[in-house]
Each structure stands twice: as C-alpha cells, then as structure tokens.
Amino acid sequence: MTNGADLLCDTLLANDVDVCFANPGTSEMHFVAALDRKQNMRCVLGLFEGVVTGAADGYARMAGVPAATLLHTGPGLANGLANMHNARRASTPMVNVVGDHASYHLPNDAPLTSDIESLAHPMSKYVRRCAGAEDVSRATADAITAARNAPTGVTTLILPADAAWGELPDDTPVHKAQLRAPSRVDGGRLDEAVKALKAGGKPILMLAGAALREGPLRRAAQIAEATGARVIAQQSNARVERGAGRVPV
Questions:
Q1: Is 211 a member of any domain?
Q2: Nearest C-alpha neighbor of 206 from the set 185, 177, 229
Q3: Same domain, yes or no: 39 and 108
Q4: What band does 231 get if pLDDT is binned at 50, 70 and 90?
C-alpha cells in the first residue's frame, strides 16, 4: 500500500518538480515523511514561510523549472503571501502545497482552521483542494499544468491531513501534467512589427519574459542596430540577464 503523501511526491517527480522548500507543521508530517522516503526529491527547510516562498520564487526564476513549497495551514500560507505576490507578478511557475486539518475535523474549528481558499486566490492563478487520497495525484498534476502552461504562474494545492495519510493500492496511477506546445507567432502580426520598425521615427522594442535572456537579447540588439530602435523591458520580469558584455536594456 501507498498513501496520498507518497503519491503527491511521485506526481511532483514525474512532472520534473524535484525541489520542495518547506516550513511544515504537524498537519504535514505525512508529507514530510514522504519527502524523506523519496531520494530524488530535494527538501530544503526554511524557518519562516516568507523565506520558503521567496526561495521557491528565486529558484524557479533561475533554474527555469517549477519549484514546490510546503506551508503549514492557512496562517502559514498567509506568512508567505508577500513573496507569492512577487512570484505572481513575475509569472513564476510555483506549486504551493498547503496542509490542512483532516477534512472531518474542520467543523470543530481548531485554532489554525481558516479559509485557505480565500487566502490563496489573490496570489494564485489556480487553487485546488484535494478531495481525498484518491484525488491527490490528479489534483497535483492539474496544479502543475496550471503553473507551467502559458501564462505560467503560482498555483496552490490544499492537502488535508486525511488525504495525505489515506492509503491507496501500490498500482494507483501517477498523473502527468497536460502541457501545451508553444504557439507560433502570427505571421501577420510579425509583418506589422517589421513595417513599424522600418517606418523610421523612434521605434522601441519592449521585451518581457524569456526574451530577456542572453540569446534573445543578442538578437534584439541586432534588430535595434539595424533599425535604430531602443530596447527596453516591461516592468515585472522573472529574470533579466545583465552585466558586463551583455546587451544594455
């Protein structure tokens, strides 16, 4: 037999999410135990949820792959909201796993019981609560799908304790995220951009996202040199490659 927490780890790993920044509490102990059992999953302990969400944001920006967090119930999520806001603005692919009391215990209104969904929604493009152990893998894959498909962003998965410790057969399937292939640039819009750049005046190339990496910036500089355009960046970006020898933006 396996359990929901093991299945969550297996689903993260199957979808190339292999680092988890964690500040757990008692509600998440089954997930912590699963992280220990999964040797391919790197778990990084943070002593405050703001550190955890900030580290996951920075890791995903630099590595170019999603990172996961483990947060302790609604109050722990609330402690990490400021850096979740930064991650949302930068379209960082980040999957937050938020523990909660066992679903049947919620009516007792324990001290850490809160409306996690309402806390998560303003800083997440997708929020989902696991309905039980049998729903964990599908819910995790859906959260990763939302985090990785354009526009990429922050997602939040709520893991009740009974969904984490609930037992499942060893052959329970591990779901994969449904990732879309990048779309091609519309030829008509590309022609319009070329005409605008060649029309004279003071054209501007405004770049964002992956266009601010070294290779695309080099190509943008070639276009700027040929047309007299200025190269600028939009305000919120995950990563801008700058420094000596790089294209000034």
A1: yes
A2: 229
A3: yes
A4: very high
